[in-house]
Amino acid sequence: MHLHEYQAKQLLSKYGIRVPRGIPVSTVVGARQAALELGGDRWVVKAQVHAGGRGKAGGVVLVRSLDELEAAARRLLGSQLITKQSAPEGLLVTTLLVEAITDIARELYLSVLVDRATQRVLFMASAAGGMEIEEVAAREPEKILTTRVHPAAGLQAWQCRLLGYGLGLDGGQIKELQRLMSGLYRLFMESDASLVEINPLIVDAAGGIMPLDAKVNLDDNALYRRPELVALRDISQEDPREAAAKEHDLNYISLDGSIGCMVNGAGLAMATMDLVKLRGGLPANFLDVGGNATAERVAEAFKLILSDGKVRAVLVNIFGGIVRCDLIAEGILKAVREVHVSVPVVVRLEGTNAPRGLEILAESGLAITTAADLTEAADRAVAAAAAA
Ligand code: GDP
Ligand code: MN
Predict the structure, then answer these.
(1) Do 326 and 358 meet the contact criterion of CB atoms below 8 Å apart?
(2) Is 224 strand, coil or helix?
(3) Does the pTM exceed 0.85?
């Protein structure tokens, strides 16, 4: 799960980290009021979308008057912001962050992430701030400084000094960096974050250091124990099909082919896709309904698969171990009745209550093809997709 910049900055504040003064708004009038409340005569208007690269895409606007501010707010609110990191159609801007402007002396980079190779929390810093870190890593890898935190010992002062000297900071700034890094480390651990990225981390005109931008990604698998963070989720920024899948606890992956695959279990999904390919077809997606599928969830899964315009045929491959095949069959019928199904559906059921499941499908009178084994099912789905 991703947080918006303004949410990330509020979280940083909670951990005692100084951030630019700012107010999130969703209307042009609100933007004006926010500017008056912040005071001064220069502000930054920042589109709140779940993608970086906003600056280059016109989503971060420095303004020198209330008129300019209103013009920027009017242009951005309700628009689709297309950045290098967004989907081609862009992301809808419904919220702006209005900030008092900060004068920048230097732009640095600082991030915290999980290093899978060493299974440790990794701090990464670079003096080349404001640029995409991937570019720095590719062209000038020596400019990236890293330090890994021992899970039992926690973040140590020497690690902060190491990065601070590497960034060319002076003594006072290094103390500030240490406070900042300690706060980030606690935030990272206590939020079950997978990434906290500060780009740029700036040295301001007075020599202080402060995050000017903040990106926080959370580990979805730990959200169940972070209800206060779940409340910050903005579904409007997510892929609608993947968001719907999450809603029903389904694992949905979009692919390029034409055959929608509904399967239970990741291993079976892989085997199913392999066989589809072997028999000359290409999967359009795969959807894992998991082990505890109910008729309702199967119906939702089915609707999800059908909502993808690329799908020319649907292949349902269920092995009933824990899940009962008759329930799966009922779910399929429920979905087929609720949504208009314009593509052929091939079903292979095996395991618990499979005969009853196939009976239910046969009795329904709906145009559903059943298959005795997976090879036959794959062949039928591939043929149906090719004919459609
Ligand atoms: P991103 O492009 O989505 O990563 O958005 P950022 O929040 O990083 O903003 C992009 C750039 O806008 C920054 O790298 C800064 O150069 C500039 N910027 C943002 N806020 C301010 C500010 O308060 N003062 C100044 N001078 N520049 C800013
Ligand atoms: Mn940035």
Answers:
(1) no
(2) helix
(3) no
